[in-house]
Amino acid sequence: MSNDEKRPHERNEKQFSRRDFLKTTGVATGGILAGSLLGGVVTHFGDSGLKDQEPNGEGGTNETPESQKGNLTDARVFFNRKSDFSTLAAAAERIFPEDDLGPGAISLGVPYFIDKQCHSWWGFNGKNYTDGPHDFEKTPEFGIQEKLNRGQIFKLGLEKMNEIANDEFDGNFWEIDSKDQDEILKKFESNDDDVKMNGVRADVFFSLLRDTTIWGVYADPAYGGNRDMEGWKMIEFPGPRMGWANIIQEEEFHKEAPQSLRTYQGGKM
Amino acid sequence: MAKKLDKVDVVVVGMGWAGGIVSAEMAKAGKKVVGLEKGDHIKREDYIGVKDELRFDNQFQIMQELKKDTVTSRNEIDETALPIRTRKKMQIGANLGGASVHWAGASYRYWPYEFEIRSKTIEKYGKDKIPEDMNLQDWGLTYDEMEPYYEKWEYTAGISGEQDPNAPKRNKPWPNPPLLESPSLRLFKDACKELGHKPFQIAAGNMSENYENPDGEKLNACMYCSYCTRHGCDFDAKSDPLATVIPTAMRHDNFELRTRANVRRVIYDKDSKKATGVLYVDENTGQEYEQPAEVVVLAAFAFTNNRLLMLSDIGEQYDPKTRKGIIGRNFNGQYNNAFAGVRGFFDNKKFNLYAGAGAMGAAITDFAADNFDHTDLDFLGGGAIELRQYGFAAIKSSGNIKSGTPNWGAEYKKESLNYAHRMLQIWYTNNTFSYWHNYVDLDPTYKDEYGDPLLRVTYKFGSGSKEIMEFGVEKCREIMEKMGADHIEEDSIPEEFDHEFSGGHYTGGVVMGEDPETSAVNNYLQMWDVDNLFVVGGSAFPQFGGHHPTPTIGALSYRAAEGVEKYLKDKKPLAKAKKTTKA
Ligand SMILES: Cc1cc2nc3c(=O)[nH]c(=O)nc-3n(C[C@H](O)[C@H](O)[C@H](O)COP(=O)(O)OP(=O)(O)OC[C@H]3O[C@@H](n4cnc5c(N)ncnc54)[C@H](O)[C@@H]3O)c2cc1C
Ligand code: SF4
Fold it and tell me: Which residues form the Glucose-methanol-choline oxidoreductase N-terminal domain (chain B) (predicted)?
């Protein structure tokens, strides 16, 4: 079957503006710059002058923002199509949005976290039983039954999300209103007839997207998400420690700044 | 072609608690023993500095990879079973130490009533109390007979506990004092006392103090580090075979451990009715070996124990249509038919829930076994009501939302951040029973990497399954109300078994008893049909007790070790078959 008509990510690429991207993904609004993500996506628009156009409107600065440090690992190694990745970023941000309480999925590095997960044994279902016959409709009952692996499901689902965005809201997923993005996400969540896919149920894709996003918010920063342990700061989780015998009996809530696995391991080779 | 090796006294298949105990005891007794373990030669060092929620709690690094070996599952006997493909739904121990390394450590003995549940139920309530669909069976030995073996396991493991006021008096005190008490445990205990229950600190396989066990193995005091369940311990502070029985066995030259040795068959001689050894594959090279032995001990967890007997054509396969056959019969365990309870949300109190230990918790047993009257109840047995403080990391804590709250978006974010340290859960660890329609056999479709059929589980709820859970949820609610939660949510009672094998409490299929018509092994876990074959572990449970299984598995393993030693001396069956009334 020729699918040419249904490739909105290609069709719309030219009309895509960086400003729209920033506006609609919410990156620009909360004041926390996910430099790494922008760095990756912005070049997609042939724009390399990121630093003099800080989305918070304050103009250029030559200092590397804290959140950009170590961002050389922020590059897509799994998703080939930028459109898939932009859809992923926008969807993850709706699942865990930036607000007064703290950063959202994009500034936490979740899209790159997911990209790296898809590139690992986990994305390739390397430890799953994979022999057929398969029946993907049975997944809610029996757990993963798809022939597709997780990475493939991500690609299929994201492409479908963007297709729906174009068909129903006349724009790419990452460009349309957050309200419309939520509407699409809800269709997937409820396995709506409109979003049927061949090989995976929409609700199964949605929970994969949802759960992996939350992993990216709260897993150790070693995996590329939970940037600067901001996820842990929000949820008041102190990270891995030798132990808590000292406070285990204490009546009061004991708050401590988080420490990462790297620190726990001594950060040595 | 398999290479044939020199004969040994005992070959042990699987090196968790069960296999480790038998190996250590046989090594100490001077027998020539080979321990075969399918997984890697894990050492404590493998668990130092790897406290990582994603890797262990969400992606299950420590569990068996399912690529080439899993279990298929279905509810009805005429349904097509599907393979359980992901570790989110299938958690089996792998590597040296097995599931006995990543267990949490909650340690209970079963009750006198439970070992003689059929006789005692009939005695007290009459035969009609037993539902028609239930294969309710005595274990073939009493609590008093089990006591010394429990004690032996508890001292090897260094369990930290205090006397449960409802439990039979102990011959010796717990080897270690109980773990420390946190505010959430105090709150639970105070509420229970107000309601007239008798709370106590859960006996824990986490050391409350530095400890040296009777074999001379040294364990360190627990740090309450919280990366415990589904993890190995950094500090040798968890009761596990890597810290105890395996090093004990390895101190003896007459014990040899072979890891990455995947046992595929018991070699069985039909004429002499003896197991002559086992066939295994070296997973590093693919080379097959035959290891002859005087005694074969299967201690490879309930799934493999059943499957190896079936693949080796030993014993008669149970068939639910004719209700004949014995291997695979009375498959049981705790699935979504146990551990229902309530979640309490506290608006004005925050708990240090990121701290904890695998078995840190408080419990009551006022509604366990037959500790309460069942005359007017439509179920048998009971269980503990527990509050546990495992220590919860960030991903887990982010799930503490009330049921009406969306699980994504701004509202989710707000609610989950608010309740991350404000939710306490209590649950009922109820008995689960065996029914004629639940069993295991070989799957007709799905195969492992060698082309051998996978094990197939057929399992659905039976009489009393939902009723016992409803009862437990109600009791949990009363306690949570007294604890002062601002908002309480009851777990919904599931409609049916959901094919989730996530707690490691899967048992039966090669069950023990006094009557070969209803049991596969005698009370030394020696097969009725095959004198020199011992099948050790939870596979011997005729039904599941109202508590976590491992101390009973440990105790039965000591019993079996004694049996193996006796058999090596006398070469005789260790128990006489008795005819019991049909279960
Ligand atoms: C997350 C979790 C938490 C738990 N917490 C508790 C708790 O708090 N309290 C409690 O009482 N119980 C608990 N359990 C249950 C406990 O882990 C088991 O009851 C116990 O480990 C069983 O011991 P075992 O020796 O029979 O099996 P295992 O420890 O699983 O050992 C079996 C060994 O056999 C090996 N093997 C399998 N097949 C083969 C083969 N073909 N050839 C060679 N080797 C093979 C395996 O690799 C494994 O090493 C928990 C389980 C899980 C999963
Ligand atoms: S909580 Fe205690 S027993 Fe468990 S892993 Fe940490 S130190 Fe070890």
Answer: 190-332
